[in-house]
Amino acid sequence: MNVQDTRSPVGYMDEKFFAHPLEKRMAVMLDRKGIGYRYRVPVHVIRDGEERETEIDFILFSPIYVRGYGLVKYIEMKNKMSKSARQQQVLLKDNGYVTLIVTAKLMEVFEKNGFLERRKVPTPVAD
Fold it and tell me: What is the pTM of this model?
């Protein structure tokens, strides 16, 4: 699913649509599982008292349980884990966006073994 909630961008968008091949691989995997998402969503964060804009690669319409990581709603794709990737993750977390960083190696594991846990997302109980 894409931003417009129409058919997936994976099938009809060329390689230039995705910023990185890893992002296309993630989009294919999410589409295969029927998981709705928005791609490349700009978000406003506050850093050192200044408001800045950054981008989250995938925001899922509904949180999912990812093997070994628990409940996930925000996904960042990185070729490898670097100091700047960790800093961005901390910045996003400080602003309320707890992200899962998926690296190339982790993506290979997910493609081979699957990435979803077999759990239901808990539904909130009214008080």
Answer: 0.78
